[in-house]
Amino acid sequence: MLFLSTCASVYQEVLSLDVKKRCGEILFENPDQNVKCVCMLDVRLRGQTGVPAERRGSYPFIDFRLLNNTTHSGEIGTKKKVKRLLSFQRYFHASRLLRGIIPQAPLHLLDEDYLGQARHMLSKVGMWDFDIFLFDRLTNGNSLVTLLCHLFNTHGLIHHFKLDMVTLHRFLVMVQEDYHSQNPYHNAVHAADVTQAMHCYLKEPKLASFLTPLDIMLGLLAAAAHDVDHPGVNQPFLIKTNHHLANLYQNMSVLENHHWRSTIGMLRESRLLAHLPKEMTQDIEQQLGSLILATDINRQNEFLTRLKAHLHNKDLRLEEVHDRHFMLQIALKCADICNPCRIWEMSKQWSERVCEEFYRQGDLEQKFELEISPLCNQQKDSIPSIQIGFMTYIVEPLFREWAHFTGHSALSESMLSHLAHNKAQWKSLLPKQHRTSGDGSPDHKGPGTEDEEQTVTEGDAP
C-alpha cells in the first residue's frame, strides 16, 4: 500500500507541473521514473488535413464467424455490418472504463526489486545481448513503454521537441495496447525488441554523426509502431478472405499501410505533436509512412538492390536528407529481421514464436477449407527448414551489405557471427534426410531452393 500511495503521489506531482515544465525542461533522473500510472479514456480523433488516419482499434481480432460466412459467398457484407464489427471492441473497452471496471491489462506498477533490475538493464540498453524477454517480465509487460520513455530521454528528444511527458507516455501506452498480446510473435515485445535493435544501429559511428534529433525520433517511433495492431495473419490471408483492408489498400502493402495509418491516428488522438508547426507534423507523418512501408518483405529486393548500388558507386551522402532517410529505412529493415543475428537462446525463442504464429494461420486456413499458405503447414514445414531458408535468402544478403556500410563495425561482425552460428544450429536440428550437402544447400526441395526465396518474400518474415 505504501508503494501504491507513493506512485500515486509522484504521478499527481507530474500532472501538477505546468505545461512548460513538462515540455522538456525537466529530465528524468532515473529510468524508473519512466513507469507512471496513467489512466486513459478513449477519445475521438480530431479532424485534420494531411495523411488520412485510421481510427484506433480499426483492426480487431479476425472475426471467424464473418470469415466462415464469406469464404463461400465471396463477399464481406454490408458496410454497416463491417463498421459494427470494427467498432465493437473499442466501444466495449471504453464503456468498461467509463463504468469504472478495471481493464484486464496489467497496471503500470513495479515492485521495488523488479524496478531496480529493470533500471540496471536500461543502463545496458545499447548492448546487443540485451534480453528483451527478461526486461518485459521485469517491467510487468510494459517493455515497450518503459524502453521508449528511457530512449526518448537519453537521446534528448523530450527536451529538443518540448514534448509533454504525460502526453508522451499516453501515446506510448496507446501504441503498446494496440499490439495483440495473444500473437506469439507480432506483439509489443517484438516491437520493443526491434526498437532496442534500432537504438543500437543509430549508434553506429558511420551513421550516428550525421543523424539529427528528427532522424532519431523518426527511427525510434517507426520501430515501436511498425507492426501495431497486427492481426497475427499475413497479407495473402487477408487478400484471399476478402478482408476490408485488402480492398482498401488494393492488395499492396496491406499490413504496412494499416500500421502506418494507425500510428498517425494515435499521434493525432494523443496530440503528442500538436504544438509543432503543421508543416513539420505533416512531414513527420509522411516520413513515418515511408519508414514503416519499407518493412514490407515483398520490397526486400528493391531496397537491397538500391543499397548495393550505392555502396558500389560510393555515392551515399549522409549529409543529404534523402540519403539519411534511405539508411534509416535500411536500419529499420535490419532491426525488423534481426532475430537470427541475436544470441542463440533468444534467436531460438523468436524462431519458435514466429513459426507458431504461422502454424496457427495454417490451422485456421485448414479449418475454413482455404489453401494453406506457404510456411504455415506444421506437418510439412519444420522450424529448422523455415529458418534456414529465411536466413539464406533474406537475412544474410541484407546484413552482409549492412556490414559493408558500417565498415565492418564490431556490432555488424558480431551479428554475422551469431547468424552463422544460429544457421549451423538449425542445420544440426534438421531431420537426417534433410541435412545439407557439401556445398551448403539443402538436399531436399523446400527451404533453400529458388521456390523458397519466393515463398519467404510473399508472406511475413520469420
UniProtKB/TrEMBL annotation:
By its UniProt entry, which Gene3D superfamilies does this protein fall under?
Answer: 3'5'-cyclic nucleotide phosphodiesterase, catalytic domain
Q: Where is this region: Disordered?
A: 430-462
Give the matching PROSITE patterns.
PDEASE_I_1 (PS00126), PDEASE_I_2 (PS51845)
Q: In which pathway does it act?
A: Purine metabolism; 3',5'-cyclic AMP degradation; AMP from 3',5'-cyclic AMP: step 1/1
Domain annotation PDEase: ranges: 110-433
Spell out the Acidic residues composition-biased ranges: 449-462
Which Gene Ontology BP terms does the record give?
Answer: signal transduction
Q: What is its EC number?
A: 3.1.4.-
Detail which positions bind Zn(2+) 1: H190, H226, D227, D336
- What are the binding positions for AMP in this chain? H186, N187, A188, V189, H190, D227, D336, Q387
Lineage, top-rank taxon, reads Eukaryota
User: What InterPro entries does the entry give?
Assistant: HD/PDEase_dom, PDEase, PDEase_catalytic_dom, PDEase_catalytic_dom_sf, PDEase_CS
Q: Where is the active site?
A: H186
Q: Family assignment?
A: Belongs to the cyclic nucleotide phosphodiesterase family. PDE7 subfamily.
Protein name as catalogued = Phosphodiesterase
Record gene name: PDE7B
